[in-house]
């Protein structure tokens, strides 16, 4: 009996009707050479008559300290405790939760209980999403958002019932909530077993291989237009759009090439971080300031831009111009009135446009972000900060994953956490690889700026 | 197995016999006044070994589909009962291994089983329910649904049964079907023992503490600071000291005087890994402890909870249960790979008594 290796455990979550049982049966019927023990919830939708199946009541136990982060699944401890004694009978465990289950206590069980932790390792959390109903579910319940947030793999199921466009929107919304998860589309939970089992989900290398762009910056604006203007006053008109306000930054001398656009975007990120200044219709837009156009009134709203001499300007807007049917026109002065009597309103088209990957497109409370920094961190400082952060905000931080470069340690340190609980373990040698830190947080109402600032203080 | 090398029996433990069962040995006990030793394994096998030689008297395989979970030996030693993942309870004759009763409780795990002290009743848990049967298999009493799965049971006297589940311990009169007492505390209770007089209730908790109540005064106290979950608990036969696991040392609380509140416990340190089993001798203050590292030690305890080792031996793998022979002249240990080891427990006769080396 091999007792040295921990038994991997996959947690299968998803709302009722999302296809958990279908997936479970697929996994069990497929030839994969694994002997899988299934711990099924008491309301198992369809009987599973293959392999080692154990029914368990979902019993969530809080500890006497009253901390909700310290909740565990008592039934799992009991069932796994007994399964440990039959380790020669299986080499993989699948835990199916009921639709309304909070994945927190399930995941925490693998951190909280020493005996379980010694014998089993949480391989990954797979969440099935019913593409046709998840939007409603996300609106109605915290549990579905949490199931999305906790996932290592999101299986977007029943895609045949939804248009491609809404699938793309849904996928982008889900990615926004959980940037760590791999998203797989399926019709009848017909996904490859390899994509849901043996994930070693905490291996960030894999995640980065899958999605190399995952740590690319996201911008607080969606659109940039570069306009070539002469001296004079210009009118910026907006129709009704998706929001009652829109942030905007005006930059002078914005070139239209890619490098210039990127440089402009970088400086705008900083400007966007500043407190916005409200602008009412009729106001003149200042240069290099974060302004918030007030668009509550009905009909067309106008703002003005004064240009002192011929130059190219850049408008960096929170939403795309299209969404508000935004137009820039020259305001006729008396002098050119003479030349142009009929109050000519000619729309000035941009000489260059660019849309950016925007963050927080969907205003979900649940979101995720990554901190990436080169260099080493001070282990004591990091531990102090993380302990404090997780004890204060642990309720809202669902998962923490990543790797860290400790000063003076030749190996990478792998971090993983569920709510308040976290572990830090040495992993592979850095070798010639550049030393860096990547830490991903998934949670509710996370203060990215503050957390990044605190992390930076831990750098050596 | 970690941090420890095999060693020969030391002190008052002397080589007896050893044997092997097919799977993880989860439960054991002596029957027929020590003439036979029973072992149940996780695959649902039951084995009877001759007490002196270790020869197999009889064996049964896969008596519980899915696996055996618990065994309780009748106080007279002539019969015993088993419970398993198939939701069944079986009552067996110790001598021949004949099945006397086979009770099907339904779907779920029959996880804990206990004969009453007078041997008239057999209590068994099935997820959130607790059943009490007469020795002839007739149902005497059934509990209402507990708020969560019953995690432990214990008889406080021949008619009163205590059950533990998440957040509470309940005392039921199984004759009059009354709740005699309810002790509540928010925590996941994983184990329970009662002092022999039934007054003190001690529970190990998931959050690494031992909680106990005195029923007569309704006082309760919590002993914290364990590095692990104190699943193993044992009272000595006089109810003076409570031995607890929850770490690689045995922590012994003394109920002498005003204790154990405000007192420091005795700590028995020789094991190198967590305690996995504890058993007091049938009489006297001898405690046997087994560990995940495969070591077994016998200790002589004082009433204040302090103790000294009087013997040690190596059982090879995680010691899942240990049992003193009814005359306390032998100690048995069963382990996670189905190994059975019996040691004679006595003062050395050929040479002069030696201290523990």
Quick structural gist:
The complex is a heterodimer of chains A (about 450) and B (about 350). Chain A is of the alpha/beta class.
Descriptive account of the structure:
Chain A is 26% helix and 31% strand. Chain A has 460 residues and is of the alpha/beta class. Chain A contains twelve helices and 23 strands. With 357 residues, chain B is an all-beta fold. Chain B has a single domain, classed as 7 Propeller (Methylamine Dehydrogenase, Chain H), CATH 2.130.10. In chain B, the strands form eight sheets. Chain B has a five-stranded antiparallel sheet with strand order 1-30-29-28-27, with no helix packed on it. Chain B has a four-stranded antiparallel sheet with strand order 2-33-32-31, with no helix packed on it. The model of chain B has no long low-confidence stretch (mean pLDDT 92). The chains are: A alpha/beta (460), B mainly beta (357). The interface between A and B is medium-sized, with 26 and 34 residues.
* Total number of domains of chain B: 1
Helical content class of chain B: under 10%
Number of H- or I-type helical stretches of chain B: 0
Q: What is the arithmetic mean of pLDDT of chain B? A: 92
Q: How does the major sheet of chain A shape up?
A: 7 strands, parallel
Strand order of the largest sheet of chain B: 1-30-29-28-27
